[in-house]
Amino acid sequence: MKKLHRWVTAVLALVLLLSLAGCGSGDGKTHLVFQIWDVYQRPGIEAVCAAYTALHPDVEIEVQVTSWSEYWTKLEASAESNTMPDIFWMHTNRLLYYADFGMLADVTDLYNDVDPNYKDL
């Protein structure tokens, strides 16, 4: 579980770094919205966000939960109106739809120095 937590923290940090541009507000902080579909995951996601913001006090992260039955409709509508959450969960069944329309960032270059033999999970 500890290894999974480190992995999730690393992924969140990566996504946050990609999301920081243009997300500021009048208080000098970067405000981010993290959209998920599982209410049971909220405490864990909020803990990861709290760990990140403890190291980066200039960032605030709001975790929003939308039920699975409404999640994809809401995400698609926000994509069409250019108001997507800064960070959001993606399902493999929907990945290509968003990737084909340029809604996902390619982060491959950020992992070029990772040892291919490294096994964290």
What are its keywords?
3 strands; 121 residues; alpha/beta; single chain; three-stranded parallel sheet
The tally of helices reads: 4
In percent terms, what proportion of residues is strand?
5-15%
Would you list the SSEs in sequence order as H and E? HEHEHEH
Strands across the major sheet, in which order?
Answer: 2-1-3
Low-confidence stretches: none
Largest sheet: 3 strands, parallel
Which class do the helix and strand fractions yield? alpha/beta
State the distance separating the first and last CA atoms. 9 Å
Brief rundown of the structure:
The chain has about 120 residues and is an alpha/beta fold.
Please write out the topology.
Layout: H1 2-19, E1 30-36, H2 42-55, E2 59-65, H3 68-80, E3 87-88, H4 95-100
Parallel strand pairs: 1-2, 1-3
Helix pairs in contact: 1-2
Structure description:
By secondary structure, the chain is of the alpha/beta class. The protein has helices at residues 2-19, 42-55, 68-80, 95-100, and strands spanning 30-36, 59-65, 87-88. Strand 1, helix 2 and strand 2 form a beta-alpha-beta unit. The longest helix is centred in the first third of the chain and has 18 residues, at 2-19. The model has no long low-confidence stretch (mean pLDDT 80).
